[in-house]
Design a protein that fits this description.
Layout: H1 3-38, H2 54-64, H3 75-91, E1 101-104, E2 107-110, H4 119-140, H5 144-175, H6 180-186, H7 205-208, H8 216-219, H9 221-234, H10 246-249, H11 259-284, H12 300-326, H13 334-363
Antiparallel strand pairs: 1-2
Helix pairs in contact: 1-11, 1-12, 2-11, 3-4, 3-11, 4-5, 5-9, 5-13, 9-11, 9-13, 11-12
Length: about 375
């Protein structure tokens, strides 16, 4: 195997893991700050300048806390469950391109850890595995609140995984590929180029949309909304945090977890927020694409950095949106969660696939 390829792969893995873990730590502080701003409070302001070391203090506290395991719990599964959650959270990002290419070691390096031709299937497979960590955590604790939280998570995943998968099919039909980097490349053309086949009575739309990029959010608005809502449910964030539900389940599946095992669940939630935001950016918001950036006359290396920064900014905006929604909307009841998943989002996703197919047939 080529030594350069191995070194570049290790470097990309280190960058992605370091970025996700660092981003998760920053998100913990950001969430506390934003929630304090929404609720007209001060937020963390004691540990370090302006409270910037609060996340580091939390990690130190969790490292030194006692690891308590219930007497009647299944010790092996109880210890193994948080490892499943954090492993899935850190490996899902492997197929998401965080930039185009960059010059390194005398060659153009793709800014994606695993350049596989089944990227979307890989994402769906791992998100399906992620629920096992929560379900096994609830079952192994031998606690009725934890068990209910695990069961809720299983039902929630089944309800929203279908809608999430179906919402992606529209993007696959338009892009004609399962590679996420090619999905981004498909969105780099100006929107006006994609509208040349419009009938004569709609030709007036071409100059109106001339400056817009052909991001999939314009072609798949229903798929975009469905995917975003399903992502909230997949990451167990408000208004869909039914597996935790402190008022009635006392914390749900992690009720019996302390120390770093609880910290791993906490970390996996924020890592999943980053990954889902990156996936939304890639599938619907053009990924690293920034309109007209190629016309700025930048060097190839500077242009690569601009594209990485563009991806980072888009992901940051979506993550902040996650946080604002949590501290704005109330939690759904469980029957409302199920009704939305099965009676609203699933029919909408199927209708979106049919409409996309008919439009592509007419467009061709």
């Amino acid at each position: 195997m080529d030594t350069t390829f191995v070194l570049l792969s290790i470097a990309k893995i280190a960058v992605v893991w370091g970025g996700v873990l660092t981003g998760a730590a920053i998100l913990v502080l950001a969430e506390r700050r934003i929630s304090a701003w929404i609720q007209n409070r001060l937020g963390p302001n004691r540990v370090g300048p302006f409270g910037l070391l609060q996340s580091a203090a939390d990690v130190v506290k969790l490292l030194f806390k006692e690891d308590i395991v219930p007497t009647a719990a299944n010790r092996f599964v109880h210890d193994f469950a948080p490892m499943i959650s954090i492993t899935v959270a850190l490996t899902t990002f492997a197929v998401i391109p965080f930039g185009d290419t960059i010059e390194a070691f005398g060659q153009n390096v793709k800014l994606i850890v695993a350049d596989v031709n089944i990227g979307m299937l890989y994402i769906l497979a791992l998100t399906g595995i992620g629920v096992y960590g929560i379900t096994l955590a609830g079952w192994s604790s031998n606690n009725k609140y934890s068990l209910l939280g695990g069961l809720r998570s299983s039902a929630q995943l089944i309800s929203y995984e279908l809608s999430m998968g179906l919402s992606i099919i529209g993007v696959i039909m338009i892009s004609g590929t399962l590679r996420l980097d090619e999905v981004v490349m498909h969105q780099t053309a100006p929107l006006a180029h994609s509208m040349q086949k419009l009938p004569s009575w709609l030709q007036w739309l071409i100059p109106v949309a001339g400056w817009l990029p052909s991001w999939n959010v314009f072609f798949q608005p229903i798929g975009f909304i469905t995917f975003v809502v399903a992502s909230f449910a997949e990451t167990n964030r408000l208004p869909f945090d039914l597996p935790e539900a402190e008022p009635e389940l006392v914390g749900g599946y992690h009720t019996e977890y302390t120390g770093m095992k609880f910290g791993l669940f906490f970390l996996s939630e924020y890592a999943n927020m980053i990954t889902s935001s990156a996936l939304i950016t890639t599938l619907f918001l053009g990924g690293w694409h920034l309109p007209f950036a190629e016309s700025w006359g930048l060097s190839p290396f500077a242009l690569s950095l601009v594209k990485i920064g563009t991806f980072f900014v888009k992901v940051t905006i979506l993550v902040v949106f996650y946080i604002i929604v949590r501290w704005t909307l109330p939690r759904f009841r469980y029957d409302q969660l199920m009704r939305l998943g099965w009676k609203v989002m699933l029919p909408l996703s199927i209708a979106n696939i049919l409409a996309t197919g008919l439009l592509l047939l007419w467009w061709s």
